[in-house]
Amino acid sequence: MIGRVRSxxxxxxxxxxxxxVVLAALGELSSRAQAAGSNxxxxxxxxxxxxxxxxTARAAVATAGAPSLINATQRTAGDPAVTxxxxxxxxxxxxxxxxxxxxxxxVGRHDFVRTSxxxxxxxxxxxxxTATMGTSAVTPAGQAPLxxxxxxxxxxxxxxxxxxxTGFIPxxxxxxxxxxxxxxxxxxxxxxxxxRPHGINAGTYTGIVTIGDRRVSALDVPVTIRxxxxxxxxxxxxxxxxxxxxxxxxVYASGHGGExxxxxxxxxxxxxxxxxxxxxxxxxxxxxCAGIATASVAFVANAWNDPAWGWNAPTQWYTLLxxxxxxxxxxxxxxxxxxxxxxxxxxxxxxxxTEQSTSPQVTAGTVPxxxxxxxxxxxxxxxxxxQPDGA
Length: 391
Known about the structure:
By secondary structure, the protein is an alpha+beta fold. It has helices spanning 2-36, 46-64, 233-254, 263-267, 273-283, 285-304, 313-358, and strands at residues 95-96, 104-108, 112-121, 152-153, 155-157, 160-162, 168-169, 174-182, 185-193, 203-211, 219-227. It is 40% helix and 16% strand. Helix 3 (233-254) runs parallel beside helix 7 and helix 6 (285-304) runs antiparallel to helix 7. It folds into 3 domains: 10-39; 42-65 and 90-125 and 139-227, Sandwich (Immunoglobulin-like); 232-354, no CATH class. The strands form 2 sheets. Strands 2, 5, 6, 7, 10 and 11 form a 6-stranded mixed β-sheet that branches. A hairpin with a 2-residue loop joins strand 8 (174-182) and strand 9. It is built from 7 helices and 11 strands.
C-alpha cells in the first residue's frame, strides 16, 4: 500500500512538472509571436516618441530661422590703403564625444531602456583682434554659445545593424532626442523598447546617430545597443535538470566517493538502483550543495552577465551545459571523495576497536581454548626422543 501511495505521488509530481513545462513553452512561443508582429505603437517609449516628434519640428523651425554667419569686412571711405581691422564671425559651437563606454546601451534581460548620453562642448577662448597699419589682420573669434537651455537640436538616425548575424533595428524603431542641457552640454536621449514596434532579437547592434543642427557643428555619435534573450525560464530549467540529474548519476556511476566502483553502472539498471543513488546523494548532501554553488557561479559568469547572450541560442546553450556540467561534477567528485575517505577511516577505526574488544585475553602459561571447545590448561612441552627410566 505504501509503495502504491509513493508511486502515485511520484506520478503526480511528474505530471505537474510536465504541465508546467508545457505552459511555459506555450507562453514563450506566444510572447515571441506577439513581439514578432507589427505594432505601430512604441510601448514604453511612446512618451519619448512624442517628444521626439515635437523636438524634430522645433529644431526644423529654429534651424530655418537661424542667421547665417558671414564674415564682414569694413573698409574706410578715405584712403583705400588703410583698412580697418576685420573680425570673423564666431564659429559654430563644437561638441565632443564621451568615452566609448558611455555610448553603450544595455537592454539586457529587460524590455525597455532609456539612456542619456552627455556631450560636452569644446572649450575655446575668444581671440583678440589686432590692427596693423596698411594691412587687414583677421583673427578667428571664439565659438558661439550653444542655443538656449532646453532647446532641441535636429537629429538624424541611422539603421542599427547586428554584428553577429543578419538583423537590424530601423530608424523608426527607436527614439533619439538631442536637447541642450546646459551652457556647455547637450544630452542625447535614446529610448529602445525591444517589443515594439517590431521584435528585437538578442545580439549587439551598432550604428550612428548624427546631430545635424545648423546651430552647432555636426557630430556623429556611435551607438551600441546590446539585447539579451527574451526569457530565461526554459534555459534555467533544462540546464538545472541536465546538470543535477546527469552530473549526480555520472559521479555516482564513475565510483568517485563511493565503494561501488564499476558496480555503480550496473546498479542503475537494477531494481533498487534509483534508491541507492538517492541514498548516496543524501549521504553526500554537502558536496552536492557545493557543486550547485559552483555550477551557479559558472552559469552567472558565462550567460547571466552577458548583455547580448542568446543571439546563437543552440550553440551557446550547449557551451553553457558543458561549462556548468564540468563545474558541478568537479566539485561533487572532489567533495564526495573527501567524504568517502573520511568514512573509510572511521569504518576502519571502528572495526579495529570491535576486534580488540571481542578478542580473548591470553595470559602467560595458558593457551586459548581449542576449536573443539576444550578449555586451555597449563602449557606443556613435548620432548622428542626416548624418555629416561622412572619417568
